[in-house]
Amino acid sequence: NAGVTQTPKFQVLKTGQSMTLQCAQDMNHEYMSWYRQDPGMGLRLIHYSVGAGITDQGEVPNGYNVSRSTTEDFPLRLLSAAPSQTSVYFCASSYAPNLGYEQYFGPGTRLTVT
Amino acid sequence: AQKVTQAQTEISVVEKEDVTLDCVYETRDTTYYLFWYKQPPSGELVFLIRRNSFDEQNEISGRYSWNFQKSTSSFNFTITASQVVDSAVYFCALSAAGSARQLTFGSGTQLTVLP
Question: How far is B5 from A70, CA to CA, in rounded Å?
C-alpha cells in the first residue's frame, strides 16, 4: 500500500495563478480531508469529505475548492493564489475519525505564493 | 465548538531528562477521542496514540506515557529519559463522535532534546 500520496511536494505560484494539489489514497477510506499548517497555528481544516460526491467546509475554506468524484482521490484547487495561502498542505484519510480511527497523513505539499 | 490548547510553545531539555507535554481540551460532546501526533524535522505526521473519553486508564508504551484526566480536561504526554531523536513538534488533537468533521489540532509543542 502506498498510503496517502500528495503531489507536488513543492510549488511556487505567482499571485493570481490557480493550481490543483493532488491527493490519493489506496486504503479505501471514506473520510478524506485537507489541512494547512502555518507556524504556531497547528493544522487547520480546509475542506473534508465523508465519501464520494460529498464534501463540506472546514475551518478555513475561503479561496479553496474541492471535489470528490472517486473514493481514492480528493484534489484541492486554489482558485486565485494569494500570499496568505503560503503554507504546508496536508491531505489525510481515515476509516472513521468520528469513531476514533486515526487519520493517515500524506507527506505534505509546501506552497509558496509570491 | 471544540478547542485544543497546548500552552507550551517550545520546550528544551537535555538528553535523559524526563519531559511532559501538556494538552488541555474543550468539547461539549460526551463521546470524543484524543490523539497525539509527532512531526519530526522531516515533516511527516506520525500517529502516536488514541484515547476515547470513556477510558481514563493511563497508558505506557516504552519511554512514552499518557495521562488522561477528564476532571481537568487534560491529556498530557510524558517522555521518560528523552533522546535526541525525540526532537520534534508534538500535536494534541480532538475528534468528536457526533461530528463528521475531522480533527481539531492544538498549535503544537516544539520539543528540542539537546545532547
Answer: 35
